[in-house]
Design goal:
The chain has about 240 residues and is of the alpha/beta class. Helix content is about 40%, strand content about 20%. The N and C termini lie far apart (about 40 Å).
Length: about 240
Amino acid sequence: WEDAAFAAEWTLGGGVARTNPNRAQQLDLLASLVSARCTAHIAQGTTSTRVLDLGVGSGLAARRLLEAMPARASIVGVDASEAMLALLREQPTDRLEALHVPFGDLETKRGELLSDDDPFACAVAVQSLHEVDDDTKRAALRFARSALAPGGGAVYILDRFNVDLGSPLADDHAALWDALHVDGDDDRKLPWTDYAAYMAAKLDDAWASPQACVDLCADAGFHAEVLYVAFNRFLVAARAAP
């Protein structure tokens, strides 16, 4: 992610559009949740209308969220990749602030990110937690919990998990994958064989299954549930445990 050419190719190519045919729908679902959370805070008369984006990257997901969010709401994004943040800053976006903060440094940057009178309405992590190990995931989630507005803040995690390429059901995986691509543009369709090779090259990623993600949230003091699963993508919602 520090390679500027790779970051640009990933961003200009639509990010994970080819490797996740349901990407647009998933971002719409996430945007609905984030918008509802911000709207609820506004209705309650609180000042908590900021969203913390853990792994904002080049801003593709953040800009989609902003389209759905109330006009008063804004996003503060953090990312470890200067190359991705440089792409984000090439297209300045109102209500979107981005800082270079690796997940492991969130606590040291607490003063720059947090405000006692303006906590976050919610936090999101879109395709970012699989880039770090479980201890760093827990630390990022604990930080998010401490940054949320009391009594109403939430964390939404949209990520992927591993597909067992050696599964006896590999042909069913292939058939489902091809079915998901039916409505895609021809130049964006990715045959299962190519996707399987892509996944095989990602075996070093620190994937967490949907249930493992729920457990990581619990370790950080949240009550979490899986709201959505499509192929190897999931959406988990978490609120501070009572």
